[in-house]
What we know:
- This protein has 151 residues and is mostly helical.
- The chain has 5 helices and no strands.
- Helix content is 81%, strand content 0%.
Amino acid sequence: MTRNVGIAVLIVGIIAIVFGSIFIYQGVAKNNLLVTAMQHEKITLGIDQDRLSAGELIDTAREAEIAGDTVRDHRHKIAPTYGDLLGGKKFDPSNLEQLKYAQALNLENYLYLAVLGFGLIQVVLASGVFMILTGLALCGMGLVLRRLRME
């Protein structure tokens, strides 16, 4: 019976290591995808002139959050809320103020979505590392149980 438990624990440990590796691979792949997408957009809002001349673009969660906050501040200078902007009327794309507000809202949402994406990537990577560590511990326990059975 102990031998079978040892083998079962080993199998569960190996499965945990495999799943952890998949989580880490997916986290790294999605991080690269998000960074590449942000670099293609070439958003530089909030980056100081020295870093801008060095070719720095927004490509991290912190930079995206700062830029999103900046866009929100600028958008609030146009109108505090979308309802205030419209004043009870429908959106009019020929109205430049409403158009600027809508474009700022889209950019702000894009940047905050990037912040959330980077955060989720960190959770996935941490989960993958935890799964691998748990899998290694389970494999070690499975080997100990098998060795105890042999004695």
